[in-house]
Amino acid sequence: MAELALANQYAKALLEVAQSAGGGQAAEAALDELSRFTEVFRSSRDLRTVLLSPVVEHQDKVRVIGRLCEAIGASRPVRNFLNVVTKKRRLALLPEIRDRYQALLDEAEGIVRAEVRTALPATEAQKQALEARLAAVTGGQVRCGYLVDGSLVGGMSVKIGSAVYDGSVRGHLEALRRRLASGS
Predict the structure, then answer these.
(1) Among 17, 49, 115, 131, which has the minimal tally of Cβ within 10 Å of its Cβ?
(2) What is the per-residue pLDDT across 118-147, written as a single tens digit (0 to 9) for each?
(3) DSSP codes of every residue in 22-75
């Protein structure tokens, strides 16, 4: 719980810096840069070992972060943020910080995130229709992440926050099975 509170504080700080540097557009760019750095951090065991090691000098870590930030095109505010997080020995919280940053940015911009699972890849027309419908239902701008899940058999399942809207064949079959099992 304390780690989530810390991640939230760091995310808030970065959001404030990014927004003051260039408004919503800079804040979105910072999210993209932080996401790219986090992905590299997650995927490289050697990088995590170097950046999390108390034996490696802070200046050496700063050089590694600088090279990585240059490679991914990260801005000065994001680079400085990563250096501070490293100095405070909170880099292990980076995935949580990134997630909290996205949540805070979405909240500030009135964006609702939805996870859409479909049995087959959705066409662009289907995506546009679904996003328009979800925007009407939620009353806000909706950004969907699409995943193909063959176990759905057909249809789709949409998750917004903790609410799940299951229009999949698998979901309907499961509901039918429960009704038959209960005898109603």
Answers:
(1) 49
(2) 888 989 999 999 899 988 888 888 888 899
(3) HHHHHHHHHHHHHHHHHHHHHH-HHHHHHHH-SSS-HHHHHHHHHHHHHHHT--
